[in-house]
């Protein structure tokens, strides 16, 4: 779409007439729309309202200064400075062009009073706080205008103007934006579901691996024993893991809960319990929350992966509330 920008040109008039003509020429040659104060009469409040509307509609604002401050408004500032302040207030990108102090300039179009000179200096300092270039003559200004505007078009692209026959249905951009937002939402949903599916597959794989390791839980004298796998062991001690507990208490707990032995009777071997806990740690189901050189005083807790497996089994229990049923992991 061929976009044209409207550029408001502000300056004193009589002393910069030739320079303004060069600026207008440069903008027209770039294919854009120059707009100047030549069509407005200074001092007319209705015309000032019109100037404000034109600045509002402009995409960029150019101010040119030489050695005259210009006619002063009732507020005590020049009309040029008033226009500049208004453009800044409205957020219109501004480009300032201040004549070089060393440039030759006719004395008859320079301010003579100290008051005007100070006001002009203050205005120039204000312009220097934003994007600004110096110029030495109208040809120099002509070249710098074109370069500076081109940079601004790239740095701060604006709405601009287009031919009516180039305008598409205004509902189309809104619909495209809506569809883009909906597409992003659905893609995010798919990614989340995919992540959940991958997580569940990982949990099932871990359970299958844990179920493949079988061992005997027995007392030291081997009088009492029971076959077990690591899933069953982990689920059996999970409550104590959630509360965090010491190694030696797992020995007592397993002897009581699995083999029916009390603390005064023959218990499971401490070395066996130590091996099982270390194996569960290797499977990333538990970790040490308190370190000790004495393995009996190591405190154990459950890992995030361990919580995922517990949540998986809890979900199955809630779906099939039969405590005697065995959980089958589908492959």
CATH class of the largest domain: Alpha Beta
Poorly predicted spans: 324-331
- The overall pLDDT average reads 83
Q: Number of DSSP strands?
A: 10
Radius of gyration: 41 Å
Task: State the end-to-end distance.
Answer: 57 Å
CATH architecture of the largest domain: 3-Layer(aba) Sandwich
**SS class:** alpha/beta
Q: Which topology of the largest domain does CATH recognise? A: Rossmann fold
What proportion of the residues is helical, as a percent range? 40-55%
Treating each run of at least 4 consecutive H or I residues as one helix, how many helices? 10
The tally of structural domains comes to 2
What's the order of the H and E elements? EHEHEHEHEHHEEHEHHEEH
Plain-language structure description:
Mean pLDDT is 83; it is low at 324-331. The protein folds into two domains: 6-163, Rossmann fold (3-Layer(aba) Sandwich), CATH 3.40.50; 198-319, Arc Repressor Mutant, subunit A, CATH 1.10.10.10. 50% of the residues lie in helices and 14% in strands. Helix 6 packs across helix 10 (304-319) and helix 8 (247-257) packs across helix 9. A five-stranded parallel sheet has the order 2-1-3-4-5, sandwiched between helices. The chain has a three-stranded antiparallel sheet with strand order 8-10-9. The protein has a two-stranded antiparallel ribbon with strand order 6-7. The chain contains ten helices and ten strands. The protein is elongated and about 120 Å long. A hairpin with a 6-residue loop joins strand 6 and strand 7 (225-229). By secondary structure, it is α/β, with parallel strands linked by helices.
